[in-house]
Structures are given as C-alpha cells and as structure tokens.
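User: We ran a pulldown and think these components assemble together. Before we commit to crystallization trials, I'd like a predicted model of the whole complex to look at. Sequences follow.
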Amino acid sequence: MVNLTIDDKQVTVAKDATIYDAAKSAGIKIPILCHDKKLHPFGGCRMCLVEVEQMKGRLIPACTTPVTEGMIIRTSNVEIIKARKLVLELLLLKHPVDCPVCDAAGDCDLQNLTYEYGVSKNPLQDEKFKWEIDYINPLIERDMNRCVHCGKCARICDEIVSFGAYSFINRGIDAKMGTAFDGPLDCEFCGSCVSVCPVGALLSRPFKFKARWWAMQKVKSVCSYCGTGCQLTLGVKDNKVLTTIYDENQGFHNGQLCTRGRWGYQFVNSEKRLTTPLIRKGNVLVEATWDEALALVTTKLREAKGGVAALATPRLTNEELYLFKKFITEGVGSQSIDHSAGYAHEALTSAAFKGLGEASSPSVIGDIQKSDLLLVVKTDAYETHPVIGFEINLGVKRQGVNLRLISDKKGKLSRLPGAQTLVHLPGSEVFLFNTLANIIVTEKLADEAAVTVAGYDALVKSLAVYTVEKGALLTGLSAEEITTLAREYASAKKALILLPLGLAYPGHNAPLAQSLLNLAILTGKIGKEGSGILFMAEKNNSQGAVDMGIVPGPGGKNGADIINGCASGEIKALYIAGENPVVSYPDRKRIEAALDKVGFLVVQDLFLTETAAKAHVVLPACSFAEKEGTFTSVGRNVQKVTRAIKPVGSSRSDFEIFNKLYAEFTGNPPYATPQSVFGEIADSVPGYGGLTWSKLGSDGFIRPVSNTLRFVPVEAAVTVSQPGKFALLTGSALNHSGTLSQYGEGPMMVCPEGYVEFGRDDVKKLGLLEGDKVVVTSAAGSVTLLAKLGKRLTTGVLFAPYHFGANSINTVASGDPVTWVSVAKAK
Amino acid sequence: MFNVASPLINGLKITLQHLFKKPVTLQYPTERPIIGPRFRGLHALNRFHDRSKCVACYLCPTVCPAKCITVEAAEDPVTHEKYASRYDIDILRCIFCGYCVEACPVDAVKMTETFELANYKREDFAYTQEMLTDKK
Ligand code: SF4
Ligand code: SF4
Ligand code: SF4
Ligand code: SF4
Ligand code: SF4
Ligand code: FES
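Assistant: Here's a predicted model for the assembly, 963 residues in total across the polymer chains.
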C-alpha cells in the first residue's frame, strides 16, 4: 500500500494504482478523455493533468503516472485549469462542433468538458477536418471529423475484442483513426468501439437520429440472447426500446456487449410482433379475444387429458418456467415437459447431475481469468457466448492463461497468442477425452483424492480400451499431441474446461460432458478457484430452465419422445411456449409432420414463427423488455430483469398467461406477482434457498452449489466416416442466437441468411466461388444454401449455422453429432 | 351641498377633456395595431432550400415549458443529413414564452407578428411543419 495526499486528503491505495485511480478512490474527480478503466493506460489527451509537489515544473498526466509514497497532488489550480482549457481549445480547433445533429450530444465527453471548463471562444483558428464519412457498413457510422484521437476504439478492439480493426494512420495533423488500407469497416460489429468512443465519431446507425440522449429513459436489464447473462441498459422513449446504452459499471463485463446484445434489440418493437390471440378456422388463423383463446385452450387441454405434453423455451424467466411446470404437472396432470429438444441440456441434467450431484456448473465466469490453463471444447465458444469470449481473450492476453482448443475446426480463439488448437476428426471428442483420462491414470498423474471418489475402479476399468494409439487413429491427432495435452492438463495447478452447449451442438450431450467431468474429477480440478468446468448453456435462462425442472417428470416424455408421440398420435395436445422446433430441432421434415399430426397445438410466442403458423391457437407473449423476473445465467448468476415498456398490443407476459391457466386448472388462487413466485422458488428450489428479491441487487447473486463427486464411465460412440461424403457440423453464427435474432434488424443487416462454409481445399475441388449456391443433401433431406469460403475448416468438413427459418439447416441435419452430406453446385 | 357636487363636477370635467384627446382604443379589425419589434406571435420556421431550416436537434421541445412542440428527426437517404420529418406545435398549449427561439442553435424557429389565432375546431390549432415553414 502507498500513502499520498491528494487535494489535502490522505489517501492509501495499492501500489500499482495510478494517480487517477487514487483520486477516484478518494472521490476526487479528474477529467479524462482517453482513459478507460478496462484498457491499458494511454496518456494521449492530457486532459487529466495534475500538479505533483515532487515533480514541480511541469504538469503530470494522472492516468498514466503510478503513485509513489508521500506524493502530494493538486488536481486543480489556475495553471491546471489553463492547461486543460488549452487541451480543449486544441481539440475544438478542427472539430466540426455540429452538436445539434450529432447523436453523441448530451453524452459526449468533449461537449461536457467544454461546458464544464467554459470554453466558449477559441483564440486559435484553423480549417475543420474534411474526412469522408464511412456510411458503408450498416451498423457503425464513422465520422473521423469528430474524432479526438483518444485511441480507445483501437485499444478495445485489440485488447479485449481481439479483432484489431483499427489503428492510427498518417502523421501529425493528418493522423486519423483508420481501418486496414483506410477502407470501409468490415469487422465482427460487436459495437465495443462505439460504446467507448467519448465523442460522436463512432455512432450506431440503426439508432441514428432516433432520439436525443437526454430524452430517453435508461432501464437496466439483462440481455435475453445467450447464457452469458450480460447486463445491459435499454434506451426507452415513448414505450419503445430504441437502443442499448453503454454503462461501464454494469456487470463483470463492464458494460461491454456482443454484436447481438448491442444491436439485436429491435425484435422488441418489431412490426412483426403478434398483438392479438389467433385461433385457427380451417386453414387460416383469425384474430380472437383473449377470453375466446384461453377458453379454447382450456377445453382442448381438458379433452386431451392423459395425452398432453409441453415444450418451453429457456428464454422465459425463472418465475414463468416455475409456474409453467406447476401448471402442466399439477394442473394438466402431465409429466411430459421438456426444452431444447431434450438433448441441449443433458450435459447439465444428466451428466452434471450424475457426476457432481447437481445439474449446474461448479465453476463461474470469474474463474476464466484466474485459471492457468483453459481447455475449450470447440472454438465455437466464441460464437456461442461472445462476451465469455472476451474473458478468454483477456485471460490469455493479460493474465497469461494457457489456451488449448479441442475442436473440429479452427476459429477466432485459435489466433490468440500461445493458443494451440488440436483439430480432431468430427465426432471423436468423447474418445479423445477418455483417452486423456486413460493416459492420466496409466501415467499416474491423477489427483491423490481421485481414488476415494465413488466409481473410481469402474472408471479405470472402462478406460483401458482407450489407448493412445487407438485415440490417435480415431481423432486424427498424433499420439504425441494427445499425451502432451493429457500431461499439461493434469499438471496444471488450475485448469478450467469450457463446454458450450446448445441446440446446434447435438454432440455436446451427456456422454461428452460426462467424459469431461471424469477428467476434471480425476485430476482434482473441481471445487478450486480458477479450475473446474463451466457449462456454457445456450440461452439467457438455460440454467434457470434446468433449475426450475423443465425436464420430464417420472414417466414423462422428453423432447424427442414428445415429437415422436405427436407423430404416433399418442400425444393429443401440445403446448409450446416460445420454442420454435420447426427451425431449431433436428430433422425439420419429421418435426413438421409431427406437429401437423397433433390434434391440438397451442403456441405462445412473440412472433408468428414457423411453428406458430401450424398452431390451432396462438397466444401473443411479451418480450423480456416487457416483464419482470429473473434469469439464471452461465455460472449460476441469478439476475433481475426489469420491465422497460408496456406490453406491445394486447400481448401478455408469459407469467400472466400461465398464471391464469394455472388458477383455472388447479383451482388454486393465482399468484399476485412474479416476486411471490420467486419467494416460492427460494423456498423450494435447491440452491435458491435464502434468496430474496432485494438480495439480488443490481449485480445479481451467484447461487451456491454443493457437489458430490462421482465417476460415471462413458462409452465413446465411434463416428464412422462415409466415403465421398462431407461431415456437416452445425453451430452458431456470431451475430445470431437461437431463432429469435432473426427478428432483430441489427443481426440481420450483417448476417441475413443461412450459409454453408467450406474449407480451402474443398473450395478448390468443387470449383466454388463465394456466394455460389450449393445443394446440400443428407438422408433426411436437401437444402440450397449460399457457399461461404472459410479458412478454418479441414478437408471434408462443412459448417452451417442453424438460426434461419428459410432454408433451415435442420432440413438436412439429423441430430447426430455429425451429419454426412453430399454437395453439388445448384443449377 | 357644494361639497357634494364638486367631485361630480370634477369627474365630468375629466370626461369632457377626453372628448378632445386622441383615443387609446383601436377600431379593430378595421384599424390595426402597431406591433413592437420583439412581439412574440405565432411561430414560423425559416426556410433552407426545399425544407425548413430546422435540423431536428430537439432543443426547443426540450426547453419548452408547455411541452407543446413535437419534433421527429430523419436521415436524408442521400446526403445523410439530419432534418425534421415532423415539426408540430400545439398552439393551444403554447404560452408564447419564446424559449424555443432562444434555444435554437441554427436560427430555424422564429416568432412572427401573427396574433389572430382564433379558430373553430381544436384540430385547427395543431400547426404542422408545412404550415409553419416560410413560403418559397
Ligand atoms: S462529438 Fe460532441 S462536441 Fe462534437 S459535435 Fe458531437 S456532441 Fe458536439
Ligand atoms: S465493432 Fe467491435 S470488432 Fe468492430 S471495430 Fe468496433 S470493437 Fe472492433
Ligand atoms: S473514433 Fe472515437 S474512440 Fe476512436 S480515437 Fe476517435 S474519438 Fe477515440
Ligand atoms: S448475446 Fe450473450 S454475450 Fe452477447 S450481449 Fe447478450 S448475453 Fe452478452
Ligand atoms: S431548436 Fe431549432 S433546430 Fe432544434 S428542433 Fe427546435 S427549431 Fe429545430
Ligand atoms: S485521460 Fe490522461 S492523458 Fe487522456
């Protein structure tokens, strides 16, 4: 600790603090323009000049100067104010000062400081900048005339996002923040640069001229796309969500969002939102009142007694899911309830439940940067959970964490310094991890305590067949690579495994998770800081859906069996709350046939999705911006969602709909508010005990786990390659999440339709050009898609994202970890 | 007796004097008032080429104490410039304080000498951008 005096105040701070940090901790404000707490100090703008007694004679930048013992600092006097005014005058010299038409006005550091320091005229004069404004990309307007050269955009894009889209070009007065070859911006569009730009040089185009900053209400909530659970601030005006607003003090991610969280909010006020209930009359859905629609649902569900099943999306709040479960099990009397096709949550509900005694991750997101070695299963971890990707970037680049990617393709994470990607043959993961476990056992690298864990002997016995030689043969990796990895993992003091889950990853199921858990338990990695395993569940409330028991009860059917039951006629009525199986569950043709067959289909959704179009009754539900409740994100963080706008049209929150039906079917009184259901959750759901609404606070609350370890041997199913065919891998595109982001303008501007990605060799072999149309055919069906040329795939491997309703990839994807397909150029 | 009559006579005297003075009232509407240079009557928007000069900065609706100005901004698809796609004043609510004129950074809004604003229907008090913008 270091003691110093700032403006006559005694301050004690850590020895790596800067003067700026020290002043901030003492509540003294020093103006800044180029400094950002997330980034390395830069010292470019000189706005933060202060006087240090021991360094008299010149002014010292507070943001880059480390504190030393006994420093005496003055943060404001006549000379300092004069210097800061000069900084502003110089910045304003070539600045256009077009605040009336600049969207940054009101939230602009330059404007605020100019006002604060009373710079109303400029003794200096020069021409204004005349840079051409970049209007080419659809999301970010780049007006370098307003740039103050703080470098924050380039630094965040490099340090945290690890994309590196910008750098300064030219010298002196011609210096400019530029892109590669000064061309238009073409990046991953996470919007981080827009968030940190202190002025209006980088602006959101979808929000352009929509509202002034001061006229918007700022409502804090949680992103409703992926399981990362980023906190965000919605900019609301006239009952419309107009934008997301950056708040550097929100969440573990310091307010940073990914491309979909940042730009995918438009679905909330989309023109396509359902505003009234619909009832099927013959071939058409006609508008109906809530009373009519709910009465019909009630009658039909009662008629179908004994043959009712339900599917819910893990995008609903905990309270809604809890209530849905109660309504279906207690009210309707069915145990057939599930989500995510029954497989995308199995890593938690089956594997973690067996191996850890609890269906949740033992580790939390905060462990990533504290680890020594990260074992990321599939490079897609960046695409599925981009802000967790930022944490990985930071861990590797700032904390020196080693990164090993075990994947069937390369990806963005592969480019991080020191990262090694072991590209194995598609579908050979379980075999690989069993082999690693076997090496660890035979080389006696296992943790001492492992022998005491239940099931040890059975595990060791089961592992014997997973020899390195066989492993090398089946995975396509060399024996040496496999052995080195096993040794590295076992010997790392802290090692964390990251496993993304999701509908697009049928291979990331119970066996894979179990083999990873065995590996982690074997090496004693569970229950330590910076160590363990983090299951990256797909949707905003996937962990919550598992916690609230949206899985089949005793004797109930799971997701896959529910679909089969519909096809066979065993299920007579199906209640779908928010899921879109027609697009997101494997084998579209089979799903469509099953849903066409079922006697009565209720779909409750925001939009008339491909699934809702088949329904007998469609109930319009509310988006996350219209409701209150909680989401439980990756790493068990229970966070509050706040209502920002009134329900769109006559839509009702899922809570309200379930509450009414629950009361009708059980005869119990309805719940008063989501809070009262939360109270019941706290009383009855393990891990939520003792939680209260107020305890969640603004940061949420990481609910505890208690693990009982157990080894569960798993057999690795061997994927046999089919000669002449390609291995099709499905996955997530960076700009999209599930099928919901299709209704967000931002994501659709950058990634409007499905595609299939080819590796270099295959492109050559097939004579393809970017944008060519290809027909992909499997045993299940055939679909025509755009070809995309990638650099990350090996020969014979294809990749396609799963989010799109038109030409959806589930027409060909069978639900196996790898689908074998043939490819032809479309005529 | 005299004491009772004198105020009456004084009063009559004043009345008589006024018969020979210039009248202060106006024979409105045949006679028109002279309007002071800083009079605050109905608003108008200055013109700039084919649009009003307003750049939709929202300062006047922000400052307006009666909240009677509605502005909506739009982006010119070709020049990317900001302009007001809507500029409405609900004159029934306006208190003619002139803050909007003071706030305008581009000298777009002004107040004219027009004070005859009576009308028959409520809707007729809603002034649109088209009605307010100076004619070409
Ligand atoms: S960047 Fe700031 S100072 Fe510059 S025009 Fe915009 S609001 Fe005004
Ligand atoms: S949007 Fe993200 S990736 Fe693109 S330049 Fe900005 S920070 Fe970099
Ligand atoms: S564009 Fe914005 S963030 Fe980037 S250097 Fe200029 S002012 Fe700073
Ligand atoms: S989509 Fe996921 S990573 Fe992106 S902002 Fe939302 S929660 Fe965060
Ligand atoms: S202040 Fe002037 S430029 Fe701004 S909205 Fe009002 S009239 Fe338009
Ligand atoms: S904030 Fe310190 S130099 Fe810019």
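DSSP finds four helices and seven strands in chain B. That may be worth checking against your pulldown data before setting up trials.

User: Thanks, that helps.
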